[in-house]
Inverse folding.
């Protein structure tokens, strides 16, 4: 049902509708956590959740993670928390220790999600709401395309995913960043402008400030929406492939000492796309490692281009052909 109250700003209504749809799947009586950075996206999300959660029989709480990476970060976190309390939300600030693995962006993201998950556990909450928008989705798809990371990265971010037993929801993936800013203005909220969002040393900032505007200028408007649609379609395809793998894999794998083996005949009988996914799935599920495209093709050649080649060293395991099977065993 749409908001039709006289005087309700269209941007506020759009954000509220998106949040209402996301909260529809949360059990009544639950607590939900809003990941509040203080930026326009998360602030608009917090305002919408403050309005919608009680009407859905839910309790909403805002959690602001202070990474401690910038001067004044504590003040920014306190200001965001104060705005959340003014919206009627329970609000708290938590500190996160940021490591170095994967670079600054990845390390901060890992620390942030760990802090949010810990805060959700103490409340306790069943869901965490994050303020990623359609623009964030478009940037994610472009970054994945530039890195050649394959269909998995081009799927972008999911609307709902599991975060160590808590559901992570992204209600605003269909909402533009301009809409969240307009919603904040309409509700008299003052977003925090993260200085990192203008630093060109970050690839995502370069995509946001340079690449997407050029694409819009040269190819016409609607690029961000097209990229988001591409992500959704690829996610649907991936879900279909996953179902096919689940149906197939139990019949073609056998456990061997220190590993697992897969039938050569069954792999050869499948299309290349499914064959490659099965190979990656086996390694990921058995050895908790990811294969690159080149590594996957190396293993596939043991199936379709067998010429007596020897074992292949892979992350966490070794693949070799033994008769009519490909064996994946732990590396010594």
């Amino acid at each position: 049902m749409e908001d039709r109250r006289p005087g309700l700003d269209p941007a506020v209504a759009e954000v509220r509708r998106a949040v209402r749809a996301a909260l529809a799947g949360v059990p009544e009586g639950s607590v939900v956590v809003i990941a509040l950075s203080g930026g326009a996206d998360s602030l608009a999300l917090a305002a919408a959740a403050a309005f919608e959660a009680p009407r859905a029989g839910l309790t909403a709480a805002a959690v602001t993670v202070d990474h401690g990476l910038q001067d004044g970060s504590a003040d920014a976190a306190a200001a965001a928390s104060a705005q959340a309390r003014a919206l009627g939300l329970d609000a708290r600030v938590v500190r996160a220790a940021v490591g170095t693995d994967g670079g600054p962006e990845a390390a901060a993201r890992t620390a942030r999600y760990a802090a949010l998950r810990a805060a959700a556990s103490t409340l306790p909450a069943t869901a965490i709401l994050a303020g990623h928008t359609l623009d964030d989705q478009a940037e994610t798809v472009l970054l994945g395309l530039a890195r050649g990371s394959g269909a998995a990265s081009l799927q972008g971010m999911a609307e709902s995913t599991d975060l160590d037993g808590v559901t992570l929801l992204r209600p605003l993936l269909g909402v533009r960043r301009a809409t969240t800013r307009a919603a904040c203005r309409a509700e008299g909220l003052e977003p925090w402008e993260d200085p990192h969002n203008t630093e060109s040393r970050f690839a995502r900032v370069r995509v946001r400030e340079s690449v997407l505007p050029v694409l819009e200028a040269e190819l016409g408007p609607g690029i961000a929406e097209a990229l988001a649609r591409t992500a959704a379609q690829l996610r649907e395809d991936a879900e279909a492939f996953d179902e096919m793998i689940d149906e197939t894999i139990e019949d073609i794998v056998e456990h061997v000492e220190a590993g697992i083996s897969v039938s050569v005949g069954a792999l050869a009988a499948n299309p290349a796309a499914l064959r490659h996914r099965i190979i990656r799935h086996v390694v990921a599920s058995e050895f908790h490692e990811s294969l690159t495209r080149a590594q996957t093709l190396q293993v596939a050649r043991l199936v379709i281009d067998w010429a007596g080649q020897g074992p292949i060293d892979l992350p966490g395991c070794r693949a070799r052909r033994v008769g009519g099977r490909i064996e994946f065993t732990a590396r010594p």
Q: What stands out?
A: The mean pLDDT is 90. The first strand starts at residue 31 and ends at 35.
